[in-house]
Amino acid sequence: MAADLSVATFPTPLGPFTVVISGYGGVAPTSGAPAGLVAELVRRLGVAPRRAALRAAGRDLETYFGERGRRLRTPADLRLATTPFARAVLEEVVTVPYGELTTYGDVAAAAGRPRAARAAGTVLARSPIELFVPCHRVVPAGPGFGTYGDDNRRLFLLRLEGSA
After folding, report:
1. Among 100, 90, 150, which residue's Cα sits nearest to residue 121?
2. Annotated catalytic sites, by residue?
């Protein structure tokens, strides 16, 4: 079923950030929204537009980037998860507090598959929901921060939150 979604692009220190709001929460594709992603979201999500929620998400992003210690309050629309495990991973990552880190192994265990750390990492790498699901807070158990698409972006977010 085709649906209307509210879409806007907001300026951030990381560049333009496209936010899509459904009736269930926010989806924030990687800045610049890859071609066709919004059309795919419209195809997959059957919801009514939420323009007031979009304005609130914009204010939420502005506050997140402008004030230390401020977590995003916009809920994430997790219906894009492709499997029950992917949904469980995203639900777990949403609970990671601002400024704290967890590991792929811990996320996998909490999602019901303790030996699936790499699979949890794959879910996060493929997630079209950025910031509202704080994938940048999930790191390898060993040294370093692992890879997260754009390492500069990840490091910026971790520094912003005081966890790098």
Report:
1. 90
2. 135
